Fold:
Amino acid sequence: MSNLLPLLSWLAFPVYVWQGLAVRRRTPRLLPPEGPVLHTLTGHGEPVRLLVLGDSSAASVGIVDSEKGLAARLAHALNRDTGRPVAWRAAGFNSATSGQLRDHVVPNMAAEPWTHIVLSVGTNDTKNFHSVSRFKKEFGGLLYAVRAKWPRARIVWSPVIDMTRVPALPALLGRILEVRAAAINRMGTRLCLERGALPAARLPVVDPAAGFSHDGFHASVAGYQAWADHLLPLIALDEAGAAASAAMAQSDGERDRGQRQ
Structure:
C-alpha cells in the first residue's frame, strides 16, 4: 500500500497548488547569512576537509551568521573532538534540486581534496512534487557525480525531515508532502547504499518552535546545532560504525513504510 501512496497523492495535487501558493505568498524569501562560506580551523595532524553541498539549508539560510550554520557547527565539533585542523566549505543554493546540483553545481566545482561531504538535498524535490522516478534519476546521478569527482571522500546524505512538523506548512499540505518525502527518503536511502554513500537517519524535530527560523521553513541557530549534532557521529565513524549506521537508516525507512501500510 505504501508504494501506492505517492501515486494517490497526485489526487491531492489541486490542494497542494492552492495551499502551496498561499504559503509562498506569506513566507519571506530569506537570503544566505553574512559571514564566511569557507574557513579553516587550526589543529594538529592530518586535516579534515568538509564540504556541505546542497540547497538553502546547506547555505544556512534562516540565520544571520554563517558561523552558526550547519557546515561551521560540524567543523567546530570535528575540530574540538579530534584536535585536527578542519577546512570547511558551505556550498548551498536557494531552491536547488538534485538535478540542478548534478548538472550545474558539481561540474563547476574545483576538485579540491574533500575528505567528507554532507549532502543536504531532497526537500525541494519533495516540495516541487518531483516523482520518485525523477528523484531516482537525478539524485542517483548526483551521487555518481560526487563519487566520481571525490572518490576518496565519505559521503553522507541527510534525508528530508518530517514535513508534518514544518511550521510554515498547513496541516493538510504537510501531510501531502510527507507522503512524498517518505517515498523520496526510501529511494534516497536505497541509492546511497548502492552507490557508496552513507544515509543518515531522519533528523528528529523535537521542538518546531525552537528548531525553525522565523520563516517557519528553514532551521534556526538551535536547529542547525541540533542538525550538526545529529550528523556528527556519521562523519566521525570508522567503517564498521558506518555500516551499522547505514543499516539503521535502512531499518528506519522500513519502519516508516510499515507504519503507513
Notes: The mean pLDDT is 88. The first strand starts at residue 38 and ends at 41.
